[in-house]
Amino acid sequence: MQQEQQQQQHSMELKEKCTGCGTVADLYGSNCGHLTLCLKCGKAMTDTAAPCAECGIPVTRLIRAENRWQGVCLLGVTCQKCTRQKFLESYNTWFLKLLESLKSTDPIFVRAAACASLNDLIVRLGGFIGVAGVKKDGALLVSKLVQPLLQIMGDKGASGIWVCT
Ligand SMILES: [Zn+2]
Ligand SMILES: [Zn+2]
């Protein structure tokens, strides 16, 4: 069971460049999870339903991993820049959303971005520790972080996470 989960995580990892042409920007995952493709190469494959070189499954869909990554990054920026009231109203929701990105089988850079954004959130939350309820809430939220973080540190493929910002 555990091994199965690890394999799935591995298969969702994007490589740092397009398997087809070596482009590093605007990368997508193939539906089977083996290939990392730029939009041009990806589209060429999905148009013809070309088979994956590793598993032979036709590539019919591109997974827009980078968009999720950008979304997660933006959330971190929002945590830092929004008004005090907006932050206090929303930090719980944002935290849970980021936590979800941390737990999932997303590519490692999505989880790295979620880590960075969670860090921004917690730093800002620390500034509101005097506000009623924040101290208790904050401690509760941070305690939820421990498990997924331990899991990430235990992942074999996660060694790159700490250098990626
Ligand atoms: Zn390409
Ligand atoms: Zn494949």
Can you offer a commentary on this structure?
Helices cover 59% and strands 5% of the residues. The protein has a three-stranded antiparallel beta sheet with strand order 2-1-3, with helices on one face. With 165 residues, it is mainly alpha-helical. It starts with a helix and ends in an 11-residue tail after the last helix. The protein has two domains: 2-63, Herpes Virus-1, CATH 3.30.40; 66-160, no CATH class. The radius of gyration is 18 Å and the shape is elongated. α4 packs antiparallel against α5. Bound molecules: zinc ion (2 copies).
Index terms:
single chain; 165 residues; mainly alpha; Herpes Virus-1; 2 domains; 3-stranded antiparallel β-sheet; 6 helices; 3 strands; 59% helix; disordered C terminus; binds zinc ion
Write the layout of secondary structure elements.
Elements lengths: L1 H11 L14 E4 L5 E3 H10 L13 E2 L1 H17 L2 H20 L4 H19 L7 H21 L11
Antiparallel strand pairs: 1-2, 1-3
Helix pairs in contact: 3-5, 4-5, 4-6
Question: Quick recap of the structure?
Answer:
It contains 6 helices and 3 strands.
